[in-house]
Amino acid sequence: MDSVEKFALSIMLLFGALIVAGLMAIGIAWSNKPAFLYALASAIVVWGSAFAVLFNKPTIYGALLVVAGLLVAASITTIVT
Fold first, then answer.
1. Which of 45, 54, 74, 78 could form a disulfide with 35 if both were Cys (CB 3.0 to 4.6 A apart)?
2. Is the separation of the CB atoms in 41 and 71 below 8 Å?
3. How far apart, in whole angstroms, are the C-alpha atoms of residue 55 and residue 61?
4. Model pTM score
């Protein structure tokens, strides 16, 4: 990886963590338990996807990212409704 790719990866990780942490904070502040739990589950899935990267399993990594995206969408949906 060159320096531009490392920089892009660090930006994606930073803002991804801020989004999930923000969803968790909103879930706590508004006493919205399902929103918090969906955001927590997405954080756990993304943490687990690091092992797929470590063991060079791109299909598992992609599937876990899709699951995390669906959990974030569910968290946002429960906040909005």
1. 78
2. yes
3. 10
4. 0.84
